[in-house]
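Work Package 3 committed the consortium to producing structural models of liganded targets before the mid-term review. Because experimental data for this complex are still outstanding, the team generated a predictive model from sequence and the ligand definition alone, so that downstream docking and mutagenesis planning could proceed in parallel. The input record is reproduced below exactly as it was submitted to the modelling pipeline, together with the SMILES string for pyridoxal-5'-phosphate.
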Amino acid sequence: MTEKWNNSTICVQGGFVPANGETRTLPIYQSTTFKYDTSEELAKLFDLAAPGHIYTRISNPTCDLVEKKIAELEGGVGAMLTSSGQAASLISVFNIASAGDNFVMMSNLYGGTTNLFLVTMKRMGIEARVATSDMTDDEIRALFDSRTRCFFGETIANPSLEVFDFDRFVPLAHSQGVPVIIDNTFATPILCNPFRFGADIVVHSTTKYMDGHATVVGGCIVDGGTFDWEKDGRYPELTEPDESYHGVIYTKQFGKAAYITKARTQLMRDLGSTPQPMAAFLLNLGLETLDVRIRRHSENALAVARYLRSRTDVVESVAYPGLEDDSEHAKAGKYLLDGMASGVVSFCVKGGREKAMKFMDSLHLAAIVTHVADARTCVLNPASTTHRQLSDEMLRKAGIEPGFVRFSVGIESAGDIIRDIEEALEACR
Ligand SMILES: *Cc1c(COP(=O)(O)O)cnc(C)c1O
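The resulting structure, written out as tokens with the ligand in place, is given here.
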């Protein structure tokens, strides 16, 4: 077989393919280090002159097999697991930006990413410039200069559920000479392959649907292998000798996989935000059922969104890209598999913060947790939790209505989830 398998098959069988007599399931290489017969062989690894594992902080065979599966699912040339989604986002940008450089980010990114980019990376001397989708192309282009290193967006933004307009932003970023990095967490590689729409690098918080069971925090970076780093000398980290590896030039030695090789051999080596082999094993278990789960999440979420939409007596507004009259529906049809939009539905109950809290407290099946995107239905009201310290006015400025509820629809019976919502809406009338 040389044809690429369908993603539903890769989920189950990609990555680890056992040889004769080997374990049927992914083996866990629970070892910090690896033994070599001669110091000569090990020395070659330290010069990046031969492939192989040195130390689990940099790479590990269990993690390697899960990385292969995710790279196959996304259609990339290589992938690297990280200890969290945050670590993946940090390394994805830091790999090609240094103090004095800047990059452009969409305004609707996940709150943790926004904080990392605008506050913490600023302390590293890297400036994030914010683009919004209602800016004109000229206004966005004005954010770029010769020190701009990348453009960062989310396929389905958490929690606004805005769908990234690849056909608009990818050519725009490329015309400015920089790659597009996409956080594909909510869509997963099943609903969207950003590389097909011109993105260059993909990151994931695997903590969400990929693991899917709220079991293990993790992240991943995938390299599409398509960006031309050598074009205009903007990326010396990749095109000039790395003295810490005896003058290796990543683009010369690793070609299409230059970016992901440098992320591992240099940044993972130095920053050490490494996933444990056991975490990679658990992630792989989740990946095996990803295709089945994300379809069910999407189907259930559409039913829940339709129900909420019908309750105009108590529900102010509903956002779900799967709804025909949602502002994101056309983009969902264009970029997401069969228009499926994952399990997260955002809505506003009438009556603000107090009513939203009463509604959530009255739910039985849906649990109040600081999480999204796992098999069990869960719910969060940013106004009373993650954004608690903000006044109603400040919340609105941040784009969050006080009655805003982020509802993560699980894979239980849609009828049961809707009944739970119905009863909670009655209770807070
Ligand atoms: C949760 C999340 C992250 C951060 O991932 P962690 O695994 O929690 O570090 C990044 N992006 C998106 C879209 C997320 O939902």
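Reviewers should note the following from the model. DSSP finds 17 helices and twelve strands in the chain. These observations will guide the Year 2 experiments.
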